[in-house]
Every structure is written in C-alpha cells, then in structure tokens.
Amino acid sequence: MNIALYGGSFDPPHLGHIQVVDKALESLDIDKVIIVPAFVNPFKKGTHAPASLRLKWLRAIFADRKGVEVSDIEVSQNRAVPSVETVEKLAKAYEKIYFIIGADNLSSLRRWHQFERLDELVTWVIATRDEIMIDERYIQLSVRYPISSSELRETLEHQHLPAEVADEIQIFYEKNKEKNAR
After folding, report:
1. Tell me, what's the pLDDT at 131?
2. Which of 7, 17, 80, 182 is 20 to 30 Å from 67 by CA-CA measure?
3. CATH numbers and ranges of domains, the chain
4. pLDDT at res. 73
C-alpha cells in the first residue's frame, strides 16, 4: 500500500490544504493521504491554536473524504516530533511513502532532523507556492491557492476557510487576536 504523508501546523487549516490533498489523490499512485498535524513545528516556538483543536478541525474537514485519514501520531506525543520519527513508524506498515511539503519549506529542508535518513525513506512531493522554483528531482503538485495560514490568521477571510469549521476557526482566531493585543 502506498500513502502520501501530509504534515504541517494547519494553524488554521484552509482551502489551500484541501486543494493539496485533492491534487495528491488525483495525481499520485497512492491508496490514501495521511494528514499529520504537528503538535508543534520543530522550527517554530509554538502555535496559535492548540494541537487538539487543530486535530479536531482537520477531522471535521476530512470526515467524509474517501482516501483521507487524519492521524494524531504526532499530536498524541505532546512534543515537537521530527518527521523522520513519524516516517520510520509508518514505513513499517506501508510500501511507499510520498511526503508532501509546500515549496516554502524547500529552503530549510536539509536542516530537518536526520534529513539524509528521511530522504532515503520518502519520495518528496512539493506543492507549488508563490513563484518558488522546484527542482526537477522532486514531484511537483501544481496548487494555486492565494493565501497562507499566517496571512489567514491576520485577515480571517471567511471564504478561505473550510465550511465545516469556518465559523469556529474565525471565532477562535478573533478571540486570540484580542488576547494578543492586550
């Protein structure tokens, strides 16, 4: 069985994330996409929404999606989990693992924990982002979505949020903005 692993902070999840999942299911030789929200990204100091809430939102968004699983493999550990750990666990159960990242992560990719080991275990799939060039050695997922999670936290533009959780996400981040402004 082949899978695509799609990890990230998803802080908040938005329609661009759904587009990546849909494109992966459509264009990769996979049986399913496993979405893995990070407890906290090892390159960041923290998150805006708690891991349990981001996990809940993702499960609501993808609940009825065939070929998609939302995993708590990292969230349940209550710590920053290097991707190589997650991949090594999943490699025991799956033949091939495609690893999806956004093109904005390419510049730091070689600084990931045990990158060489991770590179041996996965086939990299890079989702297009802005106008970032993607090397030919990677599989490219052409996704055109005009917003990032960090921009969305600022603007809270409802039309970029998945309908299943749009109101909940908007209320959470609006309350959070007020707390951070004080």
Report:
1. 86
2. 80
3. 2-181 (3.40.50.620)
4. 97
What sign for the dihedral angle of Cα 58, 63, 67, 70?
A: positive
At residue 154, what is the residue type?
E
Residue 57: exposed, middle, or buried by beta-carbon count in 10 A (0-12, 13-18, 19+)?
buried
Residue found by looking up tokens 């070929």 in the block: 67
Question: How far is Cα 163 from Cα 152, in angstroms, rounded to an integer?
Answer: 15
Between CA 39 and CA 65, with CA 155 as vertex, the angle to 5 degrees is 50
In angstroms, rounded to a whole number, what is the distance separating the alpha carbons of residues 146 and 155?
13
Q: Give the predicted TM-score (pTM) of the model.
A: 0.94
Q: Summarize pLDDT for 20-49 with one digit per residue, the tens.
A: 999 999 999 999 999 999 999 888 888 999
DSSP state letter for 112: S
Burial class (CB in 10 A: 0-12, 13-18, 19+), 138: middle
Q: Which residues of the chain have pLDDT under 70?
A: 178-182
Chain-centroid distance, C-alpha 164: 18
